[in-house]
Fold each of these.
Amino acid sequence: MNQFDWIAHTGCDGTPYNSLVSCQAGYETGADVLEVDVRTSRDGIAVLYHDDQPDVSQYTYEEWTAAGYEPVEKLETILTPYRGKPVAFNLDLKTEEAYAAAVAVVDRLDVWSQVYFTGVTDHLANGPRAKHVIWNLPPIPTDLSDDIYEERIRQYCQQAEQAGYAGINAQYGSCRPALVAQAHQLGLRVWLYTLPADEPLLRHYADMGVDALSVTDLTPAMELMKRGSTDGHRS
């Protein structure tokens, strides 16, 4: 079986979403990449929050908590404990503004070697940090004929390569062998999200040669894949 990286989806193994506890669980279980959602508060602080309502960007960090909303973690609180450790982060940017706030933290901690961006990233094309982008593919219908599918993914992969991105991030159901082959031919990594803890499904995509699989039920998924003599985890 081909080797691949495990991505711990935020909220993995029943932990609170976008929390230090979630990152700790993913790291301790052996994930190679920890995912968090990033937005920015009105005072420019990068915070971990998924939803667009209520809008965290309309509040300063202190105002948000004072308004009675559930406290949000700062990105810096999440990155600091893992600085220099053998794990990377997938910062899923929810807005363009979140990028500048996130970069300020990454620069301050000097952890660029541990950071990738997904989500809202089109504005990073051909920029100095494009190589940190794993570009979210536009939705691909699952019922396309092979010819149309291959033409579609050829265009997308070329777009990602020309933008200087490190790879592509696709919903697992839209991934066929042609996507992996085309991406790898252009030097792009292939990440898939978000798979259930289903051994045949996990092995199907691992054998396809993808570079990373994102799962929420991390511990069960990793245990399933450790059955037999081959472990999919990259050492």
Amino acid sequence: MHASQGRSAGLGLALTSAFAFGGSGVAAKPLIEAGLDPLHVVWLRVAGAALVMLPIAWRHRDLPRRKPALLAGFGLLGVAGVQACYFAAISRIPVGVALLVEYFAPALVLGWVRFVQRRPVTRAAALGVVLAVGGLACVVQVWSGLSFDALGLLLALAAAGCQVGYFVLADQGSDEDEPVDPLGFIAYGLLFGAVLLTFVARPWDMDGSVLGGTADLDGTAVPAWLLLGWIVLIATVLAYVTGVVSVRKLSPQVAGVVACLEAVIATVLAWVLLGEHLGVPQIAGGAVVLVGAFIAQSSTPKAATAEPVAGSADQTASEPSADERDGGVRVDGGARVDDGARVDGGAGGDGPAAGGAGVAAGKAAP
């Protein structure tokens, strides 16, 4: 019961994160069309979110001392790296192609879990990844932009690698005696990311007057500051908080596959709010992504059986099992129950996602 409830809560958080990340593009694109450089939009987004999370960072000011490498790694990969590589990629190859390559990340997550962490991966998890990536190819209409260069492809693959870092690092430290608080983890990740992006985006060259004017949202004049507020508060703060917590409640594999919905959501929002065309292949592809995400998140691996140690038969017979002693297990692909043993090898495949096909400024992170 508790495991089912925890997994349902994790799935709800993952969907919220996908919606929040996916909604970034429809707000960012009008700002870019109004005169802001895409990298400046990214810097405003991350720096603004870091400023919002600053009180939380102060509250957890012991984290940099306890986990400096973890926080720096998340800021480098899950915040700055994934966005910088994505924007560099779309400057050379079509947005849809860059999105598809980046969302190869769930498959890379499965490879990391299976061959690096040596956890079992279910067939349903692999099937979910295949369906999600295949459906995404239809959503972004990859066949419409196959003329890309090798450097652009390498940059998109780098964005996928950074996204793997987002999912893997978000799950680190969650099963320790003193778990890393997710809010503090996100706050310092954004701070590190903002510092790194400052050197890449060069915000001192930004045209700040754009933020005092209006931007065109499919024929409607919207205050630029309102769009920026949406990007900072919803598409970054809310997206990262719900995304990281969902990874810990589900698993990096499952959360990674559900994150593929971000591109679908972004495409639909661009259709509704920006008037961008949504064809039959995109609708069909979105349905396939949904099916893949459902298969991945609903599959639960079998618990690993502990092998008895030679010469410890009496001790094994007299001691309670891990389940009885700790009161529960964590099954990746499901929820964490109490503080018991952790059974690895869940289903599925964020992270943070791009803002959607045709929306060049929609990269979320992560």
Amino acid sequence: MSEVISFINEKGGVGKSTSAITIAQILAISGYNVLLIDLDPQMNTTKMFGQTDEVLDINYEHLFCTKQLRKSSVLEFISATDYKNISILSASRELSTLVYTIYDRSKEAGGTNIELYLRHNLSLIKDDFDYIIIDNSPFKSYLTTCAICASDKIVTPICVDNFSYDGLMSLFDTIEDLNSKYSLAIEFAGIFMTRVAGRTTLYKQMFESYENMFGEKFLPVSIRNCIAVSESNTTFEPLLTYDKRCTAAQDYIELVNYLGLMDNKHYRELAKYLKGER
């Protein structure tokens, strides 16, 4: 039974897609079977794995607005990638209009909880994957609400110079409201800093500030800024494929361990990869 993890921040440019892709790749290299779901119309995650909306013909309405009865009806939305243990449910620019479709269908359905349909549909395939990672749009919408409802855990990357306290408070409130409304147990797993340019005085001050502000919700693992991240995005290669020894890759591995996503057996497989033994 897989665990569903959503990466959400109402601000763009915080490394959300990079975080989702890199953590998915770390888990996949370790031997876990991972499904990546791209719900961002910008399609960064989709493009990383060679998919483009010119070749995609996905009727998202069936996934978000219809309760499917068979696993096969959900699996048909999913494609294999060139990377072992990584499958993808690709995005397209049609996601921009899907938010209005979900809203309209929700109004038409009256008391029916359409926000839970994605959760139901993903439950049909949970036995096929160890982890389902969702990369969400930075824009708050019905699409994001569906993703939150479908998730077991929410993780938020933030930048020192691109931080929204109000946005985070709004996300906490949304999770609490949805848990109460639908009797769910969605967990906010934490906030972590990305694109950290060295352990500067500003970084130390902001780290202490966030730690005091958010307590245990603030994760003590930060992702250092390095040129390999930008270069891997430019060449459309996942980070560990491009440079498995870069500082950001090391930090993401530490984050995966801190979040408790990997056991010792799988970590040994990752260590073999990092040493070049496989």
Amino acid sequence: MTPELEAKQHRIAALAGPIRPIAGNLPIAATTAIKITRALISAGPSNQIAPFSGGSWGGQVPAGGPRGLRSFDRPEKRPDDPFAIRRLGAELDRWMTSTIATGQVDTGVGELDYDEAYAMTLSNLDPYRIDHLDEIAHLAIRHGAGNCGYIASTAFALMRHAGVAPLDLILILPRSGPRFFRNHTVAVLGIPDVSGNQKEPPFDQWADTAVLADAWQEEMSMPASVLADRWPRDTYHYLSYARVRPRS
């Protein structure tokens, strides 16, 4: 491990502080990670416009969270703005800011010393994969923006450094056809050691017990079972890119 990566990981671990005392309560740990992620990714997602009521992004930073964080403000509602023109303008401004900043994250990711073809040959437990997510999370936090992959990597890194386990970064990819605008990435807590391929854990072995942390879409944790409605299993693979095993 390089000193540069170690410094980045120390930074992520410090930001994960509010999650650490509740790491064993998976739904609450996931919700706390989502809130911190949304505060850190202050410009919000580049591949969503007005994702929530009023185009808001962020929300309240958890007690004990890092100082100096400022969530994206909900556009002000006024009687003299009946058609929400100002609200729309604020959201378009956020989106443009995020698009520019996400481009900077893209550039940083492209400059990392990372061999994707090699990574795909490794176990999802391998430090090569997990360290790469820390690098992505550091870039997303630094620039305050990202797409679903960068946002999910940030939530995953925060929870990993807080001691949450078991924990997976799940890539949702179409079984056939183009991937563009047909893929997603989420963090999932509570997937057990399964019977079968741990890099594509059978959904029926964790759907009813695992917890979804999708900071790109949700303001709080959800049951992992909702994935089947959003990304049907007959159309999409759920692949585990990185994993932290259950504590022994």
